[in-house]
Amino acid sequence: VGSAVGGGATKDKNKDKELSGASFTLNEAMKTSSFWILLFNNVLYSSIGPTTTLLLLDIVLDTVGGSKTALKAIDVATCLYLPHFMVAAVVGPVTGWMIDYGIEIKYILFYSNMCLAFSTGLATEIKSPVTAGLFGAMRGNVGGTRQAVKQTVWANYYGRGHLGEITGISRTCEMVGMAMGPLLLGLSREHYGQYRTGCWVMAVAASVLSLSMLLLSKPVHP
User: In terms of pTM, does the model score above 0.90?
Assistant: First the structure.
């Protein structure tokens, strides 16, 4: 009976291992190109997304020539943030469904980063409620897709056995990215008198990032 129980336990463990797939150690993951592409993706997004959102009112104020009356007429809170949250609320579950049904993550990240690039450039052109709403909708697409992908991508590519180590490195690097973003826009403001140059550098970087997502491939465990 004991051997039968032991054999059953072994079979269950083997079955669980088969279902979960092979797990990469951190060192093994770092030897794959996809690890660095995903890490670069997270760091660059952390530099661009939160920074342009945090400084958005200052960016818009630059665009409208420093006029607080014009800024108030745009009604940023309603015309920008409402579309953002509404779109994200729809796109997030749809993206999760797409991942569940086998759509490759690289195509979702390609789309997400194109929206990031477009919206970052558009941030310097917000002069009306329409452009503010369009910016909000684009950022809603970014937020919805990224939130869904973030929950699955590392485990999907590298397994769950060493997931804590891998995500820990990623989050540490993301913090560095979040610190670099405001520095870039601050330098743009100091040297060029406005945020436009910094925003367009970020938009170009996001476009390159988007194209790099097409190079992603699910690694094979050695």
Answer: no
